[in-house]
DNA sequence: GTCTATAGAGTGATAGAC
DNA sequence: GTCTATCACTCTATAGAC
């Protein structure tokens, strides 16, 4: 209203929320292009149309910047999976997700690297991972409970324990796959899900019966 | 034998193999004490009784240094588990190992962080992880085969696939545990092993029989 | 509260002599 | 193989304008 936007590349006094968004977007962009090791506060500032100290005003350290990129990536991912809250075709959805992972190696690397760093007390990513683990475990646990109620999963399982195991398998398999993509990530993941939740027992029972006894 | 060691702190012209060892040991020491973020080439040099360029002569970059620490840690670990090659008390051994993990958080963090980095092509840790994954998967697969032959595990399983899943679960659970050590790592790990290998089926069968049919 | 300008401490890494 | 000397660059901190 006061002054018309000057035709500078570095927009003057962009509202803070926009700035934060622009900065986070810039970080994610660099992560995808060059990997997180290629992120420098200088380039982030450049791409966000700001100066370095401005960047560090919004995110007090480089690690905070990286966490912001992870958060932003999560949001984009969440938008992508919008509709499917049904547990119905779960194995299919798993497989689909595993496929999408293929294209986002840069983010996965960042996720893995930060997951390691984040476990040191006081690290900026600590809260992010604590929340993320807790939320994911809770979500998976609820899903397993529903499957138990539906008779798909055996009632003896501890849903939280299985949820933890499944999350762990997921993260670990991604790592292995990134290191050597010679196996079908979706397939191995779905198989692990079936075994961990005991949903392979129907088929297993037959082969078991003919094996022992 | 030839010349007695001179009583200088910075040994002059220590044989190269010794230098490498001293440097790797210094890195591991710092990792355990302060975490891998606390590793600086300067301090490594100091602890190894050498100068910085000497350190970087043997290990051309900081990442190489970190890999060296990981390798050295593996060796120490291997010595510790020397005797137990029997598959007999495997769950017990798993549990014991999971306990020992508790005391080596620094190394685990480094492992996790590097595992993420290592997936970028050309990274110094790439080879280490490729070898380690391959060796671990092969070792676990052999173990599962033996258990299949012994009638402990169902014959329908793909040993390599299960081995992958188990390794993944292991790595992932360590991460979760480091982020929030509120659960019993050994217990969850053993349970995952049982389910992934189908060795919980005997017990499961009973509960299954009374559940369905 | 939001940003710009400037500056500094510390890092990994290199060139080249011994 | 080991060292001295040096560099380029990154993250971060401070002072102050709007």
From TrEMBL, chains A, B:
Pfam families: TetR_N (PF00440). Coiled coil: none annotated. The keyword Transcription applies. Residues 17-77 form the HTH tetR-type domain. It comes from the Bacteria. Keywords: DNA-binding, Transcription, Transcription regulation. Residues 40-59 bind DNA. This is TetR/AcrR family transcriptional regulator.
